[in-house]
Specification:
Keywords: Glycosidase, Hydrolase. By secondary structure, this protein is an alpha+beta fold. The longest helix has 21 residues. Strands 4, 5, 6, 7, 8, 9, 11, 12, 14, 15, 18 and 19 form a twelve-stranded antiparallel sheet that branches. Helices cover about 20% and strands about 30% of the residues. Among the domains are: about 280 residues, Beta-galactosidase, Chain A, domain 5, CATH 2.70.98.60; about 110 residues, Immunoglobulin-like, CATH 2.60.40.1180. Bound molecules: alpha-D-galactopyranose.
Amino acid sequence: MIDETFQAWRLDDVRQTLVLAARRTRLPEVVYWGPPLPAEEDLATLFHAHALDVTGGMLDENPDLSICPEASRTFPGQPGLIIRSEGGTPLLPKFCYDRADQTDDTLTLRYKDADLGLHYAAQFKTDPDTRVITCKATLDTDAPVHLHWMAAPVMPGPQLSDEMIDVAGRWTGEFQLNRTAWSPGMRYRENRTGRTGHEHFPGLIVPCRGATNTLGQAYAFHYGWSGGHKMIAEELPDGRRQIQFGHAARMEVNAATHFSSASLYITFSDDGLNGCAVAFQRHLRDRIVTPANDRPRPVHYNCWEAVYFDHKLDVLKDIATRAADLGAERFVLDDGWFGQRDDDTTSLSDWEVDPRKYPDGLGPLIDHVHAAGMSFGIWFEPEMINPDSNLHRAHPDWALGSEDQTLGRQQKALNMGLPEVRDFVYDRMAAILSEYPIDYIKWDHNRVLPAPDADQTRGSYALIDRLRADFPAVEIESCASGGGRIDFGILKRTQRVWLSDSNDALERLKMQHNAALFLPMSVTGSHVGPRRCHTSGRVLDISFRAWVAAQRHMGFEMDPRELDPREEAVLREVTSWWKHNRDWLIPADILRLDSADPAVIAEQQMARDHSRFVVFAGKAGTSTQIAPRPLRLTRLEPDARYRVTLVNRNNIAPPALSRGNPILKERSIEVSGTWLMTQGLTLPWSFPETMWVLEGEKL
Ligand code: GLA
């Protein structure tokens, strides 16, 4: 819609409307983002009604909080674009409308600054099924410029919101949620490690006042880029709020004439944080990830915590036989098979099978794994090089960073911006993938970069893309010391993430629950670890370990030789339950429940056709009160009846301390959706570090 004083555009899916409006030829502001507006809503009125009053002590007009706020218009906060000429002079763009193109699902707005020779475009793409809007900004320039900062299209933050939720973490402690109160000024998070990072997951949720997992309004954001991002959530002096996401500042090392933000994925929900979570889960699973095959997700066995670098063929064969017998369907040979890799000081980049450990190559192990009915996967850390490696001796200049840099795990990163480096790594990996029947790569990235550099990320993407094009049947898992490279950019090219190096089921329970705000089950690897966890020292029962792994893409990582007969039996039973249910569980929505007991972390995985669900209620600590508090379910049909069964009443050894007879201990119940969502389920008493699993079926 265009007239002389303003222009406006609207985007709709079934859950949200986004309205952009601009005065005259200026950049537009988001003047509405929320529940669907009536088709006949008058955008002219919305535009005029959106304007703020002017009072004392301020300019005579409020600077626009546009999709790319301009410093040249005295915008009082972080501008959307910071650039300099090639010679270093700051450039202050003042964009003017050029053209708009709109199709059913995509709006592209183009602006230019003719004096400075700058062309800015913003794109918004809706998705009617997933309800995620994908936004992107690009800048083209007539002469090369230095880019300091470019935000993906800038969104307003709701003002009826007291806090924002973002995600921090560390090695073995990924996906920790932070709640920060809004206040004047900015919350600025920037990841300068050159990879997505454990520390600053590129996501943000802004709940409106009163929102919980299952109720209320929330806005959510995810920046799909693996090179490190910057986020700004800022409250301006006038009270307006803006949210910016982009690459970490100054990541573009050279002056250039074309720049692009990564995709910013945004969604509005009016049914709690779960509305955002489900949108992201579905969008990632159904739109971003490109599966390598249509087989069901296989149960993994990964040998890392069983043998580390100590690869002995007979031991690995024995382990493989046992893993298959327990239900594993894919065997992943972790670090230690190449070069002279007896510990982590050496051999990264020498991707040739170690003849000391495998005198006849990997063939005998792979044949054994296949004979046991499993497929075979292998570990690489393609972007890395140890100074103690043949490649480093031949090409020290291929390593990124200075000679006196601090190493990380005794290693440097390769300069992935160099085509000859990418070709070398490609050739070595392709040789292994061509020689052996391998259907899976665990792709690791265990150190941060000396400095953020967008060429490095683009180089990694190019290498993965080339390998995927040439070996389309090979699936890839993104690992970076656990969850250090998880984002929708890497997941365009990979099919699974190693959420954490922690196989401690208690830690995992929490991490998985939080990660579900962004990640579906299909991509989230989760393994049953050793009885005594290697990263926490905690000893946890097999039932808890197995059920926590069964909440996501299940696997094992302990040495199966340590299992006693009861542990074997429980693991076999849970694995078989998982296989039996995976066809509907993998595409299911993970719904975080509002647990009345803070000691209980509970989620409900809901089939896409709503015909069934499973509830995992994990007891992460000791409750304050004596008796379990009722657990309310969500998103059921109020009038439908459901049969609810406590699946694992037999394999949590019922402690003598649960002496009563709650009905679920004995048999299934048949109840209405209303009762389940209002009164909720009363579970039997249980120890901390146990998990109740309930199946529900719509009758
Ligand atoms: C990283 C990974 C682990 C394992 C080791 C191997 O730490 O996160 O799972 O693969 O590397 O060195």
